[in-house]
Design goal:
This protein is mainly α and about 425 residues long. The chain has 2 domains: about 50 residues, Rubrerythrin, domain 2 (Single Sheet), CATH 2.20.28; about 325 residues, Citrate Synthase, domain 1 (Orthogonal Bundle), CATH 1.10.580.10. It contains 18 helices and 6 strands. It has a 3-stranded antiparallel β-sheet with strand order 1-2-3. β1 and β2 form a beta hairpin. α10 runs antiparallel to α11. It is globular, with a radius of gyration of 23 Å. About 40% of the residues are buried. Bound molecules: carboxymethyl coenzyme *A (CMC). Carboxymethyl coenzyme *A binds next to α17.
Length: about 425
């Protein structure tokens, strides 16, 4: 871990920049002074080579297929941890002791209800609205209800807002679902754990007893853990950028939800399941694989490929195992979609195009089948991703606010538009 320098020859001059080494991962050339010393910007659309911040939360080695939260491998957390333990780890940096965990669970469960007035907010939406559209609106509206946790300069308020967001997201997500299907809202039940409470709010109805299946609750818990954080992806960077202006945390998380909705990001789980259903039968796989490889066809295999992973997404492995557990528990022996998925994965992993481009299944490839088996409609898939990712977003937001070097995010550009010219009156154009 030795820091060194990098030299840049530019217009006859040599400039030196500090090279910084992280704990693990690639070195970083610190070019913060580049513009001041050379008068030039860097150009990196899509940030493929740019570190936008320094962070201690999550590390990904995309070539090796490794994902660590605060140093702990994702498979160990998913196997042995529970979701609130992972939340604590992301927020505070260490796994909690028993006393810390009990205290944290208590603080989160005390905040699971939403202001009663918020339930009326939902009725302003059309019933057929996409639940992600509802989530963007309702989560953004939290800042209109919880004024006492919007002062970002107060560490106590920052933590209260963080806990509120983790605690209320399942309630809001379940309300969006219930509103969508025309059933009454079900209030949180604090004696249940995080995942079981969520399943209860989604699937219980007032007219009969609903017992949460512990195997399904554990699967839900694992899905939440797998989605909890993923370093500086598009939605997390959106949250950081929104937060860099001093916007309140509820507004920042709403911005993250909006970004996550896109099909290249969190919307891919919905798109992957729709694709599997469109393929319908293993016989049609070659046709779709050929389309994915055709440069003139915009079609892509959804649930394949990743900006960072150039190896099997470590989350996808755990997800695949969870899918089999859920289908086994529910006694679903023949799921045509699972057959299509397994065969598609087999073909893609042996096909030259996918091998050469290092396109492996990502987490979204199997999560859709599991969520469908759990009883969720496809429109809820990205909502569940948002629910789980909220802790990652808020941990990254807190880290940014608490970083003394934090500045408002303000990228530069390579301007290629018209140079200065004079206004022409309309009659002369
Ligand atoms: N199917 C077919 N070809 C693909 C695919 C795919 N799913 N993904 C990438 N390629 C090709 C692409 O056409 C390009 O080929 P060429 O070099 O010949 O132009 C090459 O692979 C590199 O692709 P890229 O678009 O430059 O790579 P990227 O890093 O910008 O995009 C991605 C990453 C995830 C947006 C992309 O792989 C994709 O669109 N995948 C499908 C959507 C998906 O599953 N998204 C979920 C990501 S995981 C969940 C999350 O973290 O949000």
């Amino acid at each position: 871990m030795t820091d060194s320098t990098a030299k840049l020859e530019f217009r006859g001059q040599t400039h030196e920049f500090k090279v910084r080494a992280g704990t693990v991962g690639p070195d970083v050339i610190d070019i913060a002074s580049l513009y001041a010393t050379t008068g030039a910007f860097t150009y990196d659309p899509g940030f493929t080579s740019t570190a936008s911040c320094e962070s201690e939360i999550t590390f990904i080695d995309g070539d090796a297929g490794i994902l660590l939260h605060r140093g702990y491998p994702i498979d160990q957390l998913a196997e042995h941890g529970d979701f609130l333990e992972v939340c604590y780890l992301l927020l505070y940096g260490e796994l909690p002791t028993k006393a810390q965990k009990d205290d944290f669970d208590h603080r989160v469960t005390r905040h699971t209800m939403v202001h009663e007035q918020m339930s009326r907010f939902f009725t302003g939406f059309r019933r057929d609205a996409h639940p992600m559209a509802v989530m963007c609106g309702v989560v953004g509206a939290l800042s209109a209800f919880y004024h006492d946790s919007t002062d970002i300069s107060d560490p106590h308020q920052r933590m209260v807002a963080s806990i509120r967001l983790i605690a209320k997201m399942p309630t809001i997500a379940a309300m969006a679902y219930k509103y969508h299907i025309g059933q009454p809202f079900v209030y949180p039940k604090n004696e249940l754990n995080f995942a079981a409470n969520f399943l209860h709010m989604c699937f219980a109805v007032p007219c009969e007893e609903y017992k949460v299946n512990p195997v399904l609750a554990r699967a839900m818990e694992r899905i939440f853990i797998l989605h909890a954080d993923h370093e500086q992806n598009a939605s997390t960077s959106t949250v950081r950028l929104a937060g860099s202006s001093g916007a309140n945390p509820f507004a920042c998380i709403a911005a993250g939800i909006a970004c996550l909705w896109g099909p290249a990001h969190g919307g891919a789980n919905e798109a992957a399941l729709n694709m599997l259903s469109e393929i319908g039968h293993v016989d049609r796989i070659p046709e779709f694989v050929a389309r994915a490889k055709d440069k003139n066809d915009p079609f892509r295999l959804m649930g394949f490929g990743h900006r960072v992973y150039k190896n099997y997404d470590p989350r996808a492995k755990i997800m695949q195992k969870t899918t089999h557990e859920v289908l086994g528990e529910l006694g679903i022996k023949d799921d045509p979609m699972l057959d299509v998925a397994m065969e598609l994965e087999r073909i893609a992993l042996t096909d030259e195009y996918f091998i050469e481009k290092k396109l492996y299944p990502n987490i979204d490839f199997y999560s859709g089948i599991t969520l469908k088996a759990l009883g969720f409609p496809t429109t809820m898939f990205t909502v569940l991703f948002a629910l789980a990712r909220t802790v990652g977003w808020i941990a990254q937001w807190k880290e940014m606010i608490e970083d003394p070097r934090q500045k408002i995010g303000r990228p530069r550009q390579l301007y290629t538009g018209a140079a200065e010219r004079d206004y022409l009156p309309i009659a002369k154009r």
